Amino acid sequence: MIFLRLAGILILIGIIVLAIFYIVTKNKKYLQLIRLVLNYVIYASVIILLIYFLFRIIHT
Asked: Of the candidates 41, 37, 42, which has an alpha carbon nearest to the alpha carbon of residue 21?
């Protein structure tokens, strides 16, 4: 569980840094990077949740 929290904090820090870069430079590539990171995070979290629930079902 600690690894998931650490990963979440690192992802949040990365998104905040990209948002600050966008605010400072007004460069649209940072918005695209934020969207890309969020897409990967959503896909990874769905896969992790599916595996977690699958293991919970199999274990009982």
From this structure: 37
Q: What is the pLDDT of residues 1-58, one digit of tens each?
A: 788 899 999 999 999 999 999 999 999 999 999 999 999 999 999 999 999 999 999 9
pTM over the 0.85 mark: no
Separation CA 6–CA 1 (nearest Å): 9
39, 15 Cβ separation under 8 angstroms? no
**14 within 8 A of 37, measured Cβ to Cβ:** yes
Tens digits of residue pLDDT in 42-54: 999 999 999 999 9
* Total residues belonging to the chain: 60
Q: Under a CB-based contact definition with an 8 Å cutoff, are residues 27 and 19 in contact?
A: no
